[in-house]
């Protein structure tokens, strides 16, 4: 519920406190933000560039694939790590939360915590707002100063989403944890060639550590491999939810999938890393 997470948030314009009104949030200086019928607050107003926002089709594909349970072991691993590292109560912030799948799983485990889902895609937030009763969902661009109070966050999740290290550091409690999940270099390797999908940068994990390294110290890492056997339909959905969906012609993709055996053996591979905030120097 949005009302339950307002104590962790601040007005994106003036950093004042926010309160809930009928279908709106309002700050102490009078800045107001609509709350959509689907329950998320539109904090991103004006001419926001939403070029990297997942489209309605990408979000629908992601929801469909995640509903199939294929990535459930990853969600469990993230939830387990969050439970092991989280302070006793507080806010779990998911930056680039998508449909809220991972945040919902974490909140199932952390029963005393509230969740904040940020995403630049309103299609994603429509789902995230309903993914768990303890989620408050907000449109936001992670590259901008976050509408979150300094030191308010117990657990910060970043699952296949952009990382704003200075802002992540500002909002995280000194005893909080940042958990970052990225695809491993061989993620979906069996599909990359035949379907001409974008490849994962083999230095991705290293680049994550570099990007957050000035403000965070690594405190743990785990690799996870999930062997899957997918139908052609599931492969199509998997391709439609990923970054290749921006570049691939649908008819060509369908033809390439039809040429695969069925079921298709596919390995999903992930790296999960967690980080402690460095003390302010
Ligand atoms: C690959 S999806 C991952 C979604 C979710 N974490 C998951 O794993 O199911 C990346 C998400 O980041 C969002 N996104 C992209 N650029 C963003 C930005 N600048 N600020 C906030 N969200 C952004 C997209 O809309 C999308 O929902
Ligand atoms: Zn304000």
Automatic annotation (TrEMBL):
GO terms for molecular function: metal ion binding; methyltransferase activity. CDD domains: AdoMet_MTases (cd02440). Gene3D superfamilies: Vaccinia Virus protein VP39 (3.40.50.150). Keywords: Metal-binding, Methyltransferase, S-adenosyl-L-methionine, Transferase, Zinc. Residues 10-44 form the 23S rRNA (guanine(745)-N(1))-methyltransferase N-terminal domain. S-adenosyl-L-methionine binds at residues 71, 99-100, 187. GO terms for biological process: methylation. Zn(2+) binds at residues 11, 14, 27, 31. Residues 92-176 form the Methyltransferase domain. It holds the Pfam family Methyltransf_25. SUPFAM superfamilies: S-adenosyl-L-methionine-dependent methyltransferases (SSF53335). This is 23S rRNA m(1)G-748 methyltransferase.
């Amino acid at each position: 519920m949005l009302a339950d997470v307002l104590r962790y948030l601040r007005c994106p314009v003036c950093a004042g406190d926010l309160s809930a009104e009928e279908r709106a949030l309002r700050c102490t200086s009078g800045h107001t933000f609509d709350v959509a019928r689907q329950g998320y607050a539109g904090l991103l107003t004006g001419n926001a560039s939403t070029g990297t926002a997942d489209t309605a089709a990408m979000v629908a594909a992601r929801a469909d694939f995640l509903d199939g349970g294929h990535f459930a072991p990853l969600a469990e691993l993230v939830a387990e790590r969050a439970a092991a590292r989280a302070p006793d109560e507080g806010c779990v912030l998911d930056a680039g939360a998508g449909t809220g799948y991972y945040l919902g799983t974490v909140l199932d485990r952390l029963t005393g915590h509230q969740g904040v889902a940020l995403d630049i895609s309103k299609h994603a937030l429509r789902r995230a707002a309903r993914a768990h009763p303890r989620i408050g969902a907000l449109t936001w661009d992670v590259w901008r100063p976050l509408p979150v109070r300094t030191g308010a966050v117990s657990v910060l999740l970043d699952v296949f989403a952009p990382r704003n290290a200075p802002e992540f550091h500002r909002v995280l409690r000194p005893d909080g944890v940042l958990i970052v999940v990225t695809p491993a270099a061989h993620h979906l390797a069996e599909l990359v060639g035949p379907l001409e999908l974008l490849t994962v940068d083999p230095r991705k994990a290293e680049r994550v550590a570099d990007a957050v390294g000035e403000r965070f110290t690594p405190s743990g890492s785990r690799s996870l491999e999930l062997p899957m056997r997918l139908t052609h339909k599931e492969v199509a959905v998997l391709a439609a939810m990923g970054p290749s969906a921006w570049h691939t012609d649908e008819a060509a993709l369908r033809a390439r999938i039809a040429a695969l055996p069925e079921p298709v053996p596919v390995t999903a591979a992930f790296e999960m890393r967690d980080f402690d905030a460095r003390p302010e120097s």
